[in-house]
Write a structure and sequence with these properties.
By secondary structure, the chain is α/β, with parallel strands linked by helices. The protein folds into two domains: 159 residues, Aspartate Aminotransferase, domain 1 (Alpha-Beta Complex); 244 residues, Type I PLP-dependent aspartate aminotransferase-like (Major domain) (Aspartate Aminotransferase, domain 2, 3-Layer(aba) Sandwich), CATH 3.40.640.10. Helix content is 37%, strand content 16%. It is built from 14 helices and 17 strands. The strands form four sheets. It has an eight-stranded mixed sheet with strand order 4-13-12-11-10-5-9-7, with helices on both faces. The chain has a four-stranded mixed sheet with strand order 1-2-3-16. Strand 1 and strand 2 form a beta hairpin. Helix 13 crosses helix 14. The longest helix has 22 residues. It is globular. The mean pLDDT is 96. The structure holds 4'-deoxy-4'-aminopyridoxal-5'-phosphate (PMP). 4'-deoxy-4'-aminopyridoxal-5'-phosphate binds next to helix 4.
Length: 427
């Protein structure tokens, strides 16, 4: 059964928005252009029920792209925010709660002895790169094609043709000089990484250990360990961008699961409990290169904001062993169910605790080139089919579905029913 969406109020808001906000949105993927429709404007959400301004109700698998591991408007997080707000929203001076949050992160994340907070993942990865360049006295940064580390100039680099290529700007306005020191290599390609290290004096290699910005494309066995060996052998730093995987796939992120310890870790999303917060961290020796102790300048008016810290702390404290078990069970039920619903159609479902991607592909996806070859038109039709059946999935085949602790078996069941019906209209 197809339910047609009523979206008159969203359409009206979108028309107004488009006059004052470029593309009608404050961040591109929200525009839903990649599934060929206009965005739905959200009125409110609770748990995983997302309600738009026209009163349509969806099971939300986007969950604000990752921060909401406990779902929307979790009472304990709301209470923490209310209490913090009543005591003042920002001071530009240290508070006890930010120490508690830092201690909580240090306890969980194997590589992190010290951290510095920022307001976005972009700032955190930009600062981690600056610190790595200062610590090594080198310039070149190696990144993977299809990985996203925020809209930092030097990291908005596309690969040219060939194995390990000097980056070319991936956006207008990014100087060639900004990406000249970026080398882009294909994910899961050991030879390409070796070539990059043979050819360049590398300051740092930055990787999403479980990449989720080309869809979820897990590392092949031994790949992360090889990255660790190569960086170590060449005196370069290994940076794990765990903005998505951090506090999600395990208490200590992908580095805990894979047993590969990076020099620096970039964190975001879950750490802010749904408010703007991110961080980067590493050993004391590295982190004390930062001002005011060291010579690497890094700052932020709202860094360690009391509301964000309170929300993040409340969020992390609820993430105990049982929570991770439950998150994995829900993820597994969703992934297995989607595979079954797809039957013998050309669909690959990738998953790890808290993350799922549905690739419209005959073959498993192992790098960005594979992800680009997927049938994104069919994904778009399927995704619109899901929306029409009350399921709000990422409006792009290059994104992960974010599973939360508020997703109950009934939400999975409703989603699978919609998914099966939408598969019928996807091709
Ligand atoms: N790194 C990764 C892995 C991300 O997924 C993102 C955002 N989706 C960022 C960095 C940038 O974070 P922000 O949007 O908070 O700047």
């Amino acid at each position: 059964m197809t339910v047609s969406l009523t979206d008159a109020k969203s359409a009206e808001l979108f028309a107004r928005a488009s006059r004052v906000l470029p593309g009608g949105v404050n961040s591109p993927v929200r525009a839903m252009r990649s599934i060929g429709r206009d965005p739905l404007f959200v009125e409110r959400a609770e748990g995983v029920d997302l309600i738009d301004v026209d009163g349509n109700r969806f099971v939300d698998w986007v969950c604000s792209w990752g921060p909401l591991i406990h779902g929307h408007a979790h009472p304990q997080i709301l209470t923490a925010i209310h209490e913090a707000a009543a005591a003042g929203t920002t001071f530009g001076a240290p508070t006890a709660l930010e120490v508690e949050l830092a201690e909580e992160v240090v306890r969980r994340v194997p590589s992190v002895e010290m951290l510095r907070m920022t307001s976005s993942g972009t700032e955190a990865s930009m600062s981690a790169i600056r610190l790595a360049r200062a610590a090594t006295g080198r310039e070149v940064v190696v990144k993977f094609a299809g990985a996203y580390h925020g809209h930092v100039d030097g990291l908005l680099a596309d690969a040219g043709s060939g194995l390990a290529t000097q980056g070319i700007p991936a956006s207008a306005g990014v100087l060639e000089s900004a990406t000249r020191a970026t080398v882009v290599v294909p994910w899961n390609d050991v030879a390409a990484v070796e070539e990059a290290f043979a050819r360049h004096d590398v300051a740092a290699l930055i990787a999403e250990p479980y990449p989720a910005n080309m869809g979820l494309v897990l590392p092949e066995p031994g790949f992360l360990a090889r990255l660790r060996e190569l960086t170590e052998a060449h005196g370069a730093l290994l940076i794990f961008d765990e903005v998505i995987s951090g506090f999600r796939v395990a208490p200590g992120g992908a580095q805990e699961l894979s047993d590969v310890t990076p020099d620096l870790t970039v964190m975001g999303k879950v750490i802010g409990g749904g408010l703007p917060a991110a961080a980067f961290g590493g050993s004391q020796a590295l982190m004390e290169r930062l001002a005011p102790v060291g010579d690497v300048y890094q700052a932020g008016t709202l860094s360690g904001n009391p509301l964000a810290v309170a929300a993040g702390l409340a969020s992390l404290r609820m993430l105990d062993e049982t929570a991770y078990l439950r998150l994995s069970e829900t993820t597994e039920a969703l992934a297995t169910g989607l595979r079954e619903a797809a039957g013998d159609r050309p669909v690959q479902v990738a998953s790890v605790g808290g993350l799922v991607t549905v690739f419209f592909s005959e073959q498993p996806v192992r790098d960005y080139a594979d992800a680009r070859r997927c049938d994104h038109e069919a994904y778009a039709r399927w995704c619109r089919g899901l929306l029409a059946r009350g399921v709000y999935a990422p409006p792009s085949g290059y994104e992960a579905w974010f599973v939360s602790l508020a997703h109950a078996p009934e939400h999975v069941a409703r989603t699978l029913e919609a998914a099966a019906a939408a598969f019928e209209v996807a091709w």
